[in-house]
Specification:
Length: 233
């Protein structure tokens, strides 16, 4: 069983259009699906679930859609604090977060503080996240520490670099399995460093329709693969 499953949750708008619904209703259905999906993963013994909720590039969408999405995330997190405490699930939010509303920032801080004691289940939401920016900020942090004399050139290795990435909040930084819904077959600037040896699973199913049977299908596909990590076995 993978320890860390990452999700690119694609297809909310297409799902809503096909159903004759508003885009906002598609995003609401997608948020509900994430809650179900993470709960199913945790029941199966998966430790970390990370979801690509909002990319840095998503700021280019219409202002109305972006405003609704920010409002939805805030409502979702605020209303589920007690649920995550009851389920003993830690919630972390990673990303630049420089453009998001103050009210959402306060809610993020509230849910992270309310759940940071839990160790066995970890949900990570990537909001205003860019894999390239994640690598750049890690490099800048290392350069700054070097200038301060805190580290030397010979200290810089994979382990040190990974400690500077935003995924340093979780015990298992590199996903074992990445799932992307809606038929697209690209990683779209998500976890560029962390996905080096991640197994990829693409499905045409739109995210709101990605149910337990589809999760099992993805996990079975993962379990049938031979993970070599670049080595001969």
């Amino acid at each position: 069983m993978p320890r860390h499953v990452a999700m690119i949750m694609d297809g909310n708008r297409r799902w809503a259009k096909q159903a004759g619904l508003l885009t906002s209703q598609g995003h609401k259905a997608g948020a509900d699906r994430l809650l179900d999906f993470s709960a199913q993963c945790f029941k199966l013994g998966i430790h970390t679930v990370s979801g690509f909720a909002f990319s840095t590039e998503n700021w280019g969408r219409s202002k109305i859609e972006v405003m609704f999405f920010m409002s939805l995330i805030q409502h979702y997190l605020k209303s589920k604090i007690k649920y995550f405490q009851r389920e003993e699930t830690r919630v972390s939010v990673i990303g630049s977060l420089t453009k998001i509303p103050e009210s959402l920032l306060r809610t993020i801080q509230e849910i992270e503080e309310a759940t940071n004691i839990y160790k066995n289940k970890h949900l990570i939401l990537a909001i205003d996240y860019s894999g390239r920016s994640d690598i750049l900020q890690a490099c800048k942090s290392i350069v700054k520490k070097s200038e301060q004399g805190l580290i030397q050139e010979e200290d810089v290795d994979d382990e040190l670099f990974e400690r500077e990435l935003m995924t340093n909040c979780t015990e298992f930084q590199s996903p074992d399995l990445l799932i992307r819904t809606s038929g697209e077959q690209r990683i779209s600037n998500f976890f560029l460093w962390q996905l080096a040896y991640t197994e990829l699973f693409f499905t045409p199913v739109l995210w709101p329709d990605f149910d337990k049977d589809k999760l099992v299908e993805a996990l079975v596909s993962y379990q049938c693969r031979e993970r070599r990590f670049g080595r001969r076995i």
